[in-house]
Amino acid sequence: MKNTKLLLFVFLMTALVSCSSEKSETHKKERPNIIFIMSDDHAYQAISAYDNKLIETPNIDRIAKMGVLFTNASVTNSICAPSRATILTGKHSHLNGKVDNHFQFDTTNITFPQLLQDAGYQTAMFGKLHFGNNPKGFDQFKILPGQGSYYNPDFITKHDGNIKVDGYVTDIITDMTLDWLENERKEDEPFMLMYLHKAPHRSWLMAERHLDDFTNREFPEPKTLFDDYSGRTSPAGEAEMNILHHMSWAGDNKVFPEVMDELGIAEIGFDKQRYTYEYSRFTDEQRESFMEAYGKVNEEFKKAYPSMSEEDMMKWKYQRYMQDYLGTIQAVDENVGRLLDYLEANDMMENTIIVYTSDQGFYLGEHGWYDKRFIYDESFKTPLLVSWPDRIRAGSRSDELVQNLDFAQTFLEAAGVESPDDMQGESLIPILTGNDGQWDRDAVYYHYYEYPAEHMVNRHYAIVTKDYKLVHYYYVEDQWELLDRNKDPLELKNFYDDPAYADIKLDLHDRLEALRTKYKDSNEISQKYIDLLMKDAAEGKVFGVSKEKVEEIKERRRRLM
Ligand code: SGN
Ligand code: CA
Question: Is residue 452 reached through a cis peptide bond, with omega within 30 degrees of 0 on the bond before it?
Fold first, then answer.
């Protein structure tokens, strides 16, 4: 009797164990959901998982705590729409054709969402795309036209035409996302969701609820706020993205036009009414909140301004910039928290790949700059946090040289879909699943094109390894820059002509040529894109570029040839 009982117990236990392992087996075999979260211009210096000296982002950090934080993730071309095109196509800009923000995306490109949709994935996109046309391969989309607006924004939708939604853009994009997950998504098929914030893009309008807090905060300054650009090639000094010299008083720093008149301050770059088009979208209540918070800022500024030195002004503008920029990030973090809470509450975390990234990095006063475009770290590198509890060990870190070029193939592999041969990235699955041995990339390729354009950053291409960057500014200058990432992490010095670097330089030149061949880039292709943009610039069609500027560039180019 006793034995029979024991046998029965053993039998039952075995059945139970095999049944539960069968269940977890099928669970493992299920295709994962994919949630791609991207903010616009979110610097890794403004995510506390990387560095908490500026702001705490506890919700974004949750993704790294559950998964992996990449410390060397970068983009192939540090600007908005080109980065998005590279993400969707898995190809460098010169092959997908979207080299700058100026021209439309070529929708004959094959994108990974189209391939996932064909493979039975449900697909949806909410927020900023910035392509000048609508995305393909989505069952549902609600996207901002162009850059979009912070307050009471318009959306282009797949099924309901153009709509205007009341409220703050970051909250609205999240509402749309949660609504899709709750009400439109079918439970029996996997999904791929792109949740794409406009924030923290310029002109940095935070949510009403954060105005009091953030307009009263003070932030530490970066070491290179007063960089004089000596020690490097000339493009660094020629760029128009210095906080003191190029950031506008009214639009960016929110000095009221009447206060500027009273103090005799001339606007920088734009007409001082330019940004007020955003203010014209406010409801009376929103306008009141703004006027109240910035009214105090303006009062204090009026008192301080008469005795301010140039250095004081730089410091003041930097603080104003950080208050507004980081204020917009506070709402991004809260809303990422709402999404993560939803996934947790609905038991969807385990087999969902969640990516948090930005379309590029951003300068938060490093080198005295705002904006991006350059290959110097803060804009070349981008935040990247990935969770997938079923497959990624919680709390991992990776310093591998991964790029936005790699997302398409990563998602396709995760979904069991074959990647087209002409995609140029590598799937990150080996790194995510702890098989780093299968990953052997030792250098990445970079190419920035948008010149002449706002901020005037010369065209350049480069090779980047963990130790060095070799950069060629090739359009209105013919200059090489060699950066030593270990010896000079602030990137203040060009070692190109230093004899101690002769061998390193030769080796990097060879490797750069090999990369250009591998990725099929060439001077002929560069020339094609120069001609295209210059044609429009000459006709006055490129934003921020005057006809005089075009003549000046042509002249410099003639002298160079
Ligand atoms: C706008 C901004 C620029 C910014 C570009 C590109 N000026 O034109 O500062 O570099 O977008 O940004 S603004 O005065 O209109 O805000 S991107 O993220 O879309 O590439
Ligand atoms: Ca951007």
Answer: yes
What pTM was computed for the model?
A: 0.94
Atom 2 of ligand 1, nearest CA residue: 202
Is it the case that residue 437 has pLDDT exceeding 80? yes
Query: Tell me: the pLDDT tens digits for 538-553?
Result: 999 999 899 999 999 9
Same domain, 299 and 217: yes
Q: Which strand (E) or helix (H) includes residue 109? A: none
Clarify whether residues 195 and 218 are in a common domain. no
The preferred substitution site among 86, 103, 150, 202 for testing ligand 1, maximizing ligand atoms within 8 Å of CB, is 202
214 and 199 both lie in a single domain: no
79 lines ligand 1 (CB under 6 A): yes
CA neighbours within 13 Å on the CB side: how many for 451?
29
- Output the average pLDDT for the chain: 94
Helix residue spans in 30-131 (DSSP H): 58-66, 80-89, 93-96, 112-118
What's the rounded mean pLDDT across residues 83-100? Answer: 98
**Ligand 1 mean position, distance from CA 374 (Å):** 14
- E strands present in 345-459: 352-358, 384-387, 396-398, 444-448
What pLDDT was estimated at residue 88? 98
Whether 111 maps to a domain, the answer reads: yes
Domain that holds residue 185: 34-204+331-436
The answer to the question of residue 94 being in a domain is yes
User: Near ion ligand 2, which residues have CB within 5 Å?
Assistant: 40-41, 80, 359
Q: Is residue 202 within 6 Å of ligand 1 at its C-beta?
A: yes
| pLDDT confidence band for 334 (50 / 70 / 90) | very high
- Residue of the nearest CA to atom 19 in ligand 1? 80
